[in-house]
Amino acid sequence: MFSQDTSLGAWVSPNNKVPIKTIGANHGVYIEDPDSKSKLLAKMAVIDGPDDFGVPLVGTNNSPDVFGAYTGNTFSGDAQKKLGQTVVPNKSLMAQGDTAYSAKWNYSTIKPNETKHYRQDVVGMIGPIVVPSAAKAWENTTSKDGLNRVGDSGKYTLTATNSGYQDEWENVKIVDTNIPSELRVDDQSIKLTVDDFNDQGVMTEYKADVPASAYHEASDGTKTITVEPGKFKTADGKAFPADLGDNDVAQVTFNVKIKSSASEKMIVNHVEASGTDKMNGTLNVKDSNDNEFKVEKDPNPTSMTKLVKNVTKGETAFTQKTIASAGDHVQYQIETTASPNNPLTGAKTQDQLDANLKLTKTQVQYQKSDGTWATAVDGTWSNSQMALTSSILRGKKARVIIDATVLTTVTNGQVINNTAELVAGSYGIGKTPDADAKVTIVGKLAIDKGSMHQYIKNVTPNGDGTT
Fold first, then answer.
1. Confidence label for 455 from pLDDT (cuts 50, 70 and 90)
2. 456 falls in which pLDDT band (50, 70, 90)?
3. Which domains does the chain have, with CATH numbers?
4. How many other β-carbons are positioned within 10 Å of the β-carbon of residue 364?
5. pLDDT (0 to 100) of residue 466
6. Least trusted range by pLDDT, from 294-298, 314-318, 422-426
7. Which residues contact 268 (CB under 8 A, 6 or more apart)?
8. For residues 288 and 159, what is the distance between their CA atoms, to the nearest angstrom?
9. pTM surpassing 0.85?
10. Is the per-residue pLDDT at 60 higher than 50?
11. Concatenated DSSP letters for 212-247?
């Protein structure tokens, strides 16, 4: 446990009863003194930061009972964070008396020769100044025991806060960089919220859905999400604030799923918030933060690959990507490998084919115990899914083969990139390895964007021999 008494103002006569307010989003608390233009942050949302924090109870004679909130002989009581009172920014936690704040870390065992760190940051400033603050939080929306497992769904929250004083943070850009390949991002789930406070502390909230184009996956597999809050409008057309003023908060949220490749790994993610300081010569200012969580070992590790070949062009080997033109026959091969520990029964493979592909045939093939393959048989394709009626032996594979024709609706340069995944089976709901293969459209048979035109001619006679 840790605690600090608080005061602000002139050295000879400081204000020892300065009110303590929340930074918001469980990031910590702050105090400020308008007369001296001074402000101090106690930041808690840092690596090795506390599990709980808040302000103490006020005891007799106005002396703060610094650890009073953590009641019980094991100090298991809750302070304001655990009570849900530090989520909203600028909320007054203690407005009178000899103010102070405290923090608590949960019990943990320190092994011989092991080092553990306990951290809480303090930032002091004199305004006008922008103090950028970036944070990233992970919430597992599937787990009931606090552990992260393959197949779990979760939500990331990226937060940018102007924790400065009497200044505005302009041109704010929030970038989530190098999103791990072990996470599958739902690019339809990205949302933006800005909490804007006026001089009287009254908040106006702005909300908007962020287009999927904010998510970008480079050819080398690097994934990023980029959002500039000042460029958005609400659903009813109201423009977002161009800048973040004192204590204003911008939050970006998006959903992910933990892939099979994450088993026993530490998932580390990085966010950066950048912009300019309006009152200090448009000085470039930025902050960054990391989030990490451990994924438990998957007792039944599975994997999936998806490859493609162009049958029309005479390709005989399946590869990760190919090229095609309108009318070409392409064939996909999806292989699912069962766990070496247990067979996989009741499996279902799902693949939502691109609208520019016409399904013509599906087959399924199982690997035998000696590693050879049984004869492929026709499969039943329903609602973009193939139910595997036979078990996949331990450590062996099953293939789903999909034949499709490229439709004339494609355009030159278009990339058809649909993903296959395992959506059901005896390993439990949520064990979803996935894979994709790419088809790039080329050739004169594909319709170029803007190359099709429609013309009209009036052929009704005018009565004088003309039309």
1. low
2. low
3. 1-126 (no CATH), 128-298 (2.60.40.740), 303-441 (2.60.40.740)
4. 22
5. 59
6. 422-426
7. 180, 290, 291, 292
8. 10
9. no
10. no
11. GGGEEE-TTS-EEEEE-GGG-B-TTSPBPPSEE-TT
Using an 8 Å Cβ cutoff, are 381 and 403 in contact?
no
CA distance linking residue 115 with residue 111, whole number of Å = 8
Q: Which whole number is the average pLDDT over 163-174?
A: 94
d(CA 352, CA 306): 13
**Cβ 269 vs Cβ 254: under 8 Å:** no
Q: How far apart are CA 166 and CA 41, in angstroms?
A: 15
Closest CA to 44 of 81, 7, 75: 81
CA–CA dist 212, 197 (Å, integer): 29
∠ CA 233-238-243 to the nearest 5 degrees? 70
In whole angstroms, what is the distance from residue 189 CA to residue 209 CA? 8
The strands making up 28-33's β-sheet, listed across from edge to edge, are: 92-94, 20-22, 28-33, 38-43, 121-126
Report how far residue 85's alpha carbon sits from residue 23's, in angstroms, rounded to the nearest whole number: 11
Q: Which amino acid is at 220?
A: D
Beta strand pairing call for 321-324 and 434-441: parallel
Instruction: State how far the Cα of 188 lies from the Cα of 197, in Å rounded to an integer.
Output: 29
Q: Can you tell me the distance from the alpha carbon of 413 to that of 35, in angstroms, rounded to the nearest whole number?
A: 62
Report helix, strand or coil for 167: coil
Using the structure block, give the residue that is written with the tokens 């799902």: 350
pLDDT at 11 > cutoff 80: no
